[in-house]
Amino acid sequence: MSSSGSLEQVIHDRASLIAVKELENKLRRHQIVSTEAIAQATAKTVRTVISATKVWQLDELVRIIRIVGHHLQNAHPFEPVIGNVTRRILYLLREEVKALTTLGTGAASAGAEAPSSSGTARTPPHPSVVQSLAALSMSMPASPASSMHASFEMPVTPAPNRSFSISDLVFPSSTMATPPTCANAQSAYTSDVNRNATVSPGNVSSPLDTPSQDGSESPQRMSDSMSSDDDAIPVIPSHAYQLKPLLIQAIQELLDEFESVDTSIAKDARDHIHSGEVILTLGYSTTVQTFLRAAAKHRKFIAVVPESAPSFAGHEMARALAADGLSVLLVPDSNVYALMPRVSKVILGARCVLANGGILASIGAKAISMAAREHSTPVVALAGVFKISPDWSWVSPERLRTGNQGPTAQLVNYASSHTLAEKAEIENPLWDFVSPADIDVIITNVGEHPPSYVYRLIQENYHEEDLNL
Q1: Where are the beta strands (DSSP E) in 155-257?
Q2: Torsion angle of the four alpha carbons 93, 467, 35, 74, in this order, in degrees rounded to the nearest 10
Q3: pLDDT tens-digit profile of 89-100?
Q4: Domain chopping of the chain, boundaries
Q5: CB atoms within 10 A of CB 460
Q6: Where are the transmembrane segments (predicted)?
Q7: Is 30 helix (H, G, I), strand (E, B) or coil?
Q8: Does residue 364 register a pLDDT over 60?
Q9: Run of H or E residues at 68
Q10: Bond preceding residue 310 cis, omega within 30 of 0
Q11: Which CATH superfamily is domain 273-466 in?
């Protein structure tokens, strides 16, 4: 993510600047750990900045959002969700601009197509209307319909004195005069329109339009020239001021989506887990926990959880699932391959989903996915849409080597191993890359998709101009 400009140059509100600085410090100190919490904090901070800014132009808003996202990403260079949320907000901004532009263009075209009261010819009436008016004039000569009929100049023989019936409009009686034909009525109406057009106000010349005797322009022409000059002055469209409120509302809807991601993913859990199955998961993930808890309400199954050394996140996951009433089996990491023939399905929580359908998951996920492929065991990945990233650098060897390291104190006790700590190179990787060939389906909060469909989700949630921030 590259962007030019400092925060002080684009953020003039002190409260917004302090909010961005505070989030930067929390990200540097790793005070916010979960991806959902980081996504919510990023969206709230950008919303605070947009609320306080006094610009409405698209280019300026895009520049401000990019600079804020750039500084937040630099504070935590190895967290993909910061860039994903920034791209998503930029996409929402562009969609709101497109909607407002369409609305403004539609209103302008509707106003241009509106007929004027003096320069538009009347539409001829339908022939059935002409016949109905003729019948009414024959039965009620003094009615307003007769005067309207008289304007068509269609002479009608008066009917005998009798009461009017509604059936006369459909089947005129033999005692009534034969109504005029549609062709005669149409020609009479056309001649009437032409006669009225000759005396229309638009054809009458005004004294103001004639030039004066001294050769100077008339006042009317001078006013017309002044109005044409005024039209050349650019005017800010009124709907442009609605952009910021609509964008703030869209960000709030995005925050609501973050809060309901786990619930949306877990709503179809019963369709993927069946009674009597053995489900293997890895590490601690609130998304996987919610998914298994929702399935346990309708199915009876066993959850197998490896320890996930050296962080031992599997212990926390096993305790959480046991508290939810599930049957849990906590096993060492070395027993995964031996247990794989008994496993019905592998469910992994993804930290990041790449454009090719691969995922970043807890360390050990690569070995589990390879063992599952060897035994033809389905592998299911769970991830919210906000975890889908178009950035390929997250799987580069340099990024995985430098930004994928946990605390080495989990492996070595420096107090009792001075020689080992001084002479050995200690690595503690946190995440594994699982290729799309080892994944069967990815379940998101907008549905379940094969890994090959991820590129489509990127097009639906990010704009092509924002893929490289």
Answers
A1: none
A2: -100
A3: 999 999 988 888
A4: 7-103, 273-466
A5: 11
A6: none
A7: coil
A8: yes
A9: helix 58-75
A10: yes
A11: Translation initiation factor eif-2b; domain 2 (3.40.50.10470)
Q: Are 168 and 178 in contact (CB under 8 A)?
A: no
- With residues binned 3-state (H G I as helix, E B as strand, rest as coil), the percentages for the chain, rounded to 5, are 55, 10, 35
Tokens encoding 455: 């590129």
Mean predicted confidence (pLDDT) in 189-207 = 43
Percent of the chain at pLDDT > 70 equals 68
Question: For the segment 375-413, what is each residue's pLDDT rounded down to a tens digit?
Answer: 999 999 999 999 999 987 777 766 666 667 888 878 877
Cα 99 to Cα 104, 105, 121, distances in angstroms? 9, 10, 35
348 bridge partner residues: 381
pLDDT at 106: 60
7-103 and 273-466 have identical folds? no
Q: Give the separation between CA 42 and CA 1, rounded to whole angstroms.
A: 15
Given a contact cutoff of 8 angstroms between Cβ atoms, the answer to whether 364 and 310 are in contact is no
Question: The whole model's pTM is what?
Answer: 0.70
Tokens of 71: 């500084």
Contact in structure between 180 and 134 (CB atoms under 8 Å)? yes
| Sequence-ordered alpha helix ranges (H) in 415-467 | 418-423, 454-461
**Other C-beta atoms lying within 10 Å of the C-beta of residue 251:** 22
100-127 burial, b at 16+ Cβ within 10 Å, e below that, comes to: beeeeeeeeeeeeeeeeeeeeeeeeeee
The burial class, CB within 10 Å (0-12 / 13-18 / 19+), for 376 is exposed
Q: What is the DSSP string of 233-268?
A: S----GGGGGHHHHHHHHHHHHHHHHHTHHHHHHTT
Phi, psi of 347 (to 5 degrees): -120, 120
User: CA 436, 320, 297, 364: dihedral to nearest 10 degrees?
Assistant: 20
- Asked if 452 contacts 435 with a C-beta cutoff of 8 angstroms, the reply is no
Rg (CA), the chain: 38
Angle of helix 80-112 relative to helix 58-75, nearest 10 degrees, comes to 170
Order of strands, edge to edge, in the sheet holding 441-444? Answer: 327-331, 302-306, 278-281, 345-349, 379-382, 441-444, 447-449
Decide which of 266 and 208 is more confident.
Answer: 266
**pLDDT at residue 3 in the model:** 54
Architecture of domain 7-103: Up-down Bundle (1.20)
Determine the 3-state secondary structure of 145 from DSSP: helix
Residue with the two structure tokens 């589990």: 368
Residues 6+ apart with CB under 8 A from 309: 333
Which CA distances in Å does 464 have to 42, 78, 188, 393? 21, 23, 62, 17
CA of residue 168 relative to chain centroid, distance: 60
Distance between CA atoms of 345 and 238, rounded to whole angstroms? 56
